[in-house]
Design goal:
There is one protein chain. By secondary structure, the protein is an alpha+beta fold. It has helices at 10-16, 105-112, 124-131; strands at 21-26, 30-42, 69-74, 78-84, 93-103, 149-152, 160-163, 177-180. Strands 1, 2, 3, 4, 5, 6, 7 and 8 form an 8-stranded antiparallel sheet that branches.
């Protein structure tokens, strides 16, 4: 996708990304791809956002123009992949929570140590592990022609669901999570998957 294809509003981008394809070209493992089925929006005025208190070395990618990767380590064990979502200088991003594997299943299975397809990229930590993403992928331009990590257009979901975000204590009431209703690859409690 070109940057011009991406909506310049965080909530609009979170909705838009459902059905899009995340692709990684790896020099050792080849190409892997998965269709995004779940996202969460983190807005500039959002107390649950890493960017709420301003730019830091850790969250700097959130302040890049839309279409850059923001990858961070959570709980010291799992990485999470996000897409920056506003104009340069405004801190906001879309967390990609889950995806349906399409290409490179053997690579994802090896990285995740499971053959259960629904568990390969269901949840943000699992998705990053399946794609082999870590802090070295932070700040990558997902719209650059030669980027090893990029977004492609895909079929939109038949039904787009929405709910509150998962696992938050601050701003937990806000309906900023979007997902393909009925997808077996969506994460979270069953009551938040339909």
């Amino acid at each position: 996708m070109r940057r011009a294809d991406l909506p310049g509003d965080t909530v609009a981008l979170a909705r838009f990304l459902i059905g899009s394809i995340l692709v990684r070209d790896d020099a050792l493992d080849g190409r892997i791809a998965a269709r995004i089925v779940e996202t969460e929006a983190y807005l500039p005025d959002d107390a649950a956002s890493h960017a709420f208190r301003g730019a830091t070395q850790r969250n700097g990618a959130m302040f890049l123009e839309r279409g850059h990767a923001y990858v961070y380590l959570i709980y010291g064990i799992s990485h999470c992949f996000n897409v920056s979502s506003e104009r340069a200088g405004t801190g906001a991003a879309v967390l990609v929570r889950a995806a349906e594997p399409l290409l490179g299943l053997e690579v994802m299975q090896r990285r995740r140590a499971t053959t259960v397809q629904a568990d390969l990229a269901r949840g943000p930590g699992r998705l990053a592990q399946a794609f082999g993403l870590d802090r070295s992928h932070d700040r990558l331009d997902l719209c650059a022609p030669a980027s090893p990590l990029w977004l492609a257009a895909g079929p939109p979901p038949p039904v787009l669901g929405e709910s509150v975000r998962i696992g938050l204590t601050r701003e937990a009431h806000r309906v900023l999570r979007f997902f393909e209703a009925g997808s077996a690859f969506v994460s979270g409690p069953k009551k938040l998957r339909t």
